[in-house]
Write a structure and sequence with these properties.
The protein is mainly beta and 166 residues long. The chain is 5% helix and 44% strand. Strand 3 (47-63) and strand 4 (72-87) form a beta hairpin. It comes from Glaciibacter psychrotolerans.
């Protein structure tokens, strides 16, 4: 078969296609229930553009061998973290009011589905369970809104997306 020009696959636009819920009670992070997530609060639009910032990294372990001209490698521990920055607000539905330091709960993140769409069975989500850390004021830039920064002490392994259940 002849070589062909590679065509770029279509990508999903981010605009309006992310929903983040704060859920105080989630029995099983591997099988979140629709009723549990609906009992939580939508906080997506409280976050600044870079304010929803889950990250992960994985160690690479060296595997040196006698007389082998190249070290081999194996995968090591994963380090995951979640840093937040959101607008300062007195609104009862805002992250500034909902995300109280010391609370234990879960963030449920849904991508590639319109924010306005209701959460449903089989929606794919990623769950971040943890304890909310202290808040500190964000740096004022003189032109935007005041913000708050907060870290989350993650208490469970962050894996691939899982399906919502009834």
């Amino acid at each position: 078969m002849a070589d062909v020009i590679e065509i770029a696959p279509p990508a999903v636009d981010q605009t309006g296609m992310l929903t983040v819920f704060w859920v105080p009670t989630l029995a099983n992070p591997l099988a979140p229930k629709v009723t549990e997530v609906k009992a939580g609060k939508r906080v997506t639009y409280s976050f600044t553009p870079a304010g929803w910032s889950p990250t992960s990294d994985q160690e690479i372990n060296k595997d040196g061998r006698a007389t082998l001209p190249q070290d081999l490698e194996s995968l090591g521990k994963i380090t995951a973290s979640l840093s937040l920055e959101y607008v300062d607000s007195d609104d009862a539905t805002s992250a500034a009011v909902v995300l109280v330091p010391g609370l234990v709960g879960a963030f449920v993140e849904r991508r590639r589905v319109r924010n306005a769409a209701d959460i449903t069975v089989a929606d794919k989500v990623r769950v971040y369970t943890g304890t909310l850390g202290i808040r500190s004021p964000g740096s004022p830039d003189g032109t935007g809104k005041f913000s708050l920064k907060q870290k989350v002490a993650l208490s469970n392994v962050i894996g691939e997306e899982v399906a919502m259940v009834a």
